[in-house]
Design goal:
Largest sheet: 8 strands, antiparallel
Number of strands: 19
Bound molecules: cobalt (II) ion
Number of helices: 15
CATH superfamily of the largest domain: Creatinase/methionine aminopeptidase superfamily
Distance between the termini: 17 Å
Keywords: Aminopeptidase, Cytoplasm, Hydrolase, Metal-binding, Protease
Shape: globular
InterPro entries: Creatinase/aminopeptidase-like, Met_Aminopeptidase_Type2, Pept_M24, Pept_M24_MAP, Pept_M24A_MAP2, Pept_M24A_MAP2_BS, WH-like_DNA-bd_sf, WH_DNA-bd_sf
Subcellular location: Cytoplasm
CATH architecture of the largest domain: Alpha-Beta Complex
GO molecular function: initiator methionyl aminopeptidase activity; metal ion binding; metalloaminopeptidase activity
Main location: cytoplasm
CATH topology of the largest domain: Creatine Amidinohydrolase
Number of domains: 2
């Protein structure tokens, strides 16, 4: 999920003035904090290739064999695909055993417990040197090392589940399906691969969906998910769909998204956003300033012009959403990376996790809240119990604590737990400031938007694009 552009607190750190000056205020137009828009990263599409380098120098295993489908995001070059497949050989057998839709738990496919490494990229020379001092400290600390290895295992497993679940989406989703069918299938797949249905209290805290599955069409840029009881939307051949979902294990969330379209008319829009996200990934690193990542993103995004239905549009970088860091059980860790120039001197730091996402649009790029609710999120530091006058608020609060903690959830996630008559309770928690509600975000009608997003780990000597796949 993308974070809403901070006008305020999320941007904290002294730099806020600068960042908001550059990007912030004006553009945000009244929106407050950063909401993430989970973005995804685009891969090699559109002739963009940053990832190529990483692969080559690191023997890193490309995730098994997803072939991207008919979706236009699949356009990536065939030759590259082949090359990667070879790298991924050792996992090949495992993927062959995965069912469609995916239902074979990941631990059965990888009995050794060792999951594919993401794409490893080096830092540029200057940042590596800067790093040395900190690095030593880390080496001494054995406990931290053990934690680091559990952290990596959790992240790599969650990323592989993301790849396998999205592979199904790319292969199987077709116009005529409803958004509810698609969302439920994504979620059923993720839970099956985790081998955790999350129906008992506490289970979803161990592993589950990282946030509500986002399926945002056309001018709805981010944060739309189907809700129970609402009129369902049927996917059309002419739609551009952002598919944004997360997988978490022990609170470590893989946040990754892509865009699919059935009409090749949108290919260049998708390519622009993929390229922008890849530019952000390439620039990101330990000690790198947020302003530098933003500038790289904007420059790439705005170098594209696209023709849709006979009209030319510049691709605009969306102003109201940001990429963001991720903390345990917390999708928006507090750092935000706008997609346009700013003077935020905040640096990325070793050990941090970032969701590098970008959104491009043919519309105005300043988004408005759409009606309805996407999801709700508790502050992870929220107290164990609350006592409000409304009994149902206290009840639903306990359910949230027991099942989601700080993980953003949606009404469908509550209903599958058998919770009923929760709306008044949720509203009360929101109005008391205990729960934050996220709304869908839209650009002007008739516009089209795309998103790509990857989760990256800023490890000691390399950055790991943990959610990278053959698809994007
Ligand atoms: Co995100």
């Amino acid at each position: 999920m993308g974070s809403k552009t901070p006008g305020n607190d999320n941007y904290q750190r002294g730099d806020s003035q600068s960042s908001s000056a550059a990007i912030g205020n004006g553009e945000v137009r009244g929106r407050n904090n950063s909401q993430d828009g989970d973005g995804c990263m685009g891969s090699n599409g559109g002739g963009e290739d940053d990832d190529g380098e990483g692969d080559d120098d690191n023997n890193d295993v490309a995730p098994p064999t997803l072939t991207l489908t008919g979706a236009s995001s699949a356009d990536a070059s065939k030759s590259k695909k082949k090359k990667r497949k070879r790298h991924g050989k050792k996992n090949k057998t495992s993927i062959l055993k995965q069912s469609s839709p995916p239902r074979v738990p990941l631990h059965d496919l990888f009995p050794s417990g060792s999951y594919p490494t993401g794409e490893l990229l080096g830092y540029d020379a200057s940042s590596e040197t800067r790093n040395t001092a900190k690095t030593k400290e880390v080496r001494i600390d054995g406990l931290r090392r053990t934690n680091e290895s559990a952290f990596l295992d959790n992240y790599r497993k969650a990323a592989e589940i993301h790849r396998q679940a999205r592979h199904w989406v790319q292969q199987s989703v077709k116009p005529g399906q409803t958004l509810t069918e698609i969302a439920v299938e994504v979620e059923d797949s993720v839970r099956a691969l985790l081998d955790n249905q999350g129906l008992e209290p506490g289970q979803s805290l161990q592993a589950g969906m990282g946030f509500p599955t986002g399926l945002s069409l056309n001018n709805v840029v981010a944060h739309y998910t189907p809700n129970p009881g609402q009129k369902d939307i049927v996917l059309q051949h002419s739609d551009v769909m952002k598919v944004d979902f997360g997988v978490h294990i022990n609170g470590w969330i893989v946040d990754s998204a892509f865009t699919m379209a059935f009409d090749p008319e949108y290919d260049n829009l998708l390519a622009a956003v993929k390229a922008a996200t890849n530019a952000g990934i390439k620039t990101a690193g330990i000690d790198v300033r947020i302003s530098d990542v933003s500038a790289a993103i904007q420059e790439t995004m705005e170098s594209y012009e696209v023709e849709i239905k006979g009209r030319m549009y510049p691709v605009k970088a969306v102003r109201s959403l940001c990429a963001h860091d991720i903390k345990q059980y917390r999708i928006h860790g507090g750092k935000s990376i706008p997609f346009v120039k700013n003077s935020d001197q905040t640096k990325m730091e070793e050990g941090e996790v970032f969701a590098i996402e970008t959104f491009g649009t043919t519309g105005r790029a300043y988004l408005k809240d759409d009606s309805g609710i996407y999801g709700y999120g508790l502050d992870p530091g929220a107290p164990a119990r609350v006592s409000l006058p409304l009994a149902s608020a206290n009840r639903v609060y306990k359910t949230i604590k027991d099942n989601f903690g700080g993980i953003v959830f949606c009404r469908r996630y509550l209903e599958r737990l058998g919770v009923e008559r929760y709306l008044a309770g949720l509203n009360s928690l929101v109005s008391n400031g205990i729960l934050e509600a996220y709304q869908p975000l839209m650009d002007v009608p008739g516009s089209y938007s795309a998103q790509f997003e990857h989760t990256i780990l800023l490890r000691e000597s390399q950055k790991e694009v943990v959610s990278r796949g053959d698809d994007y």
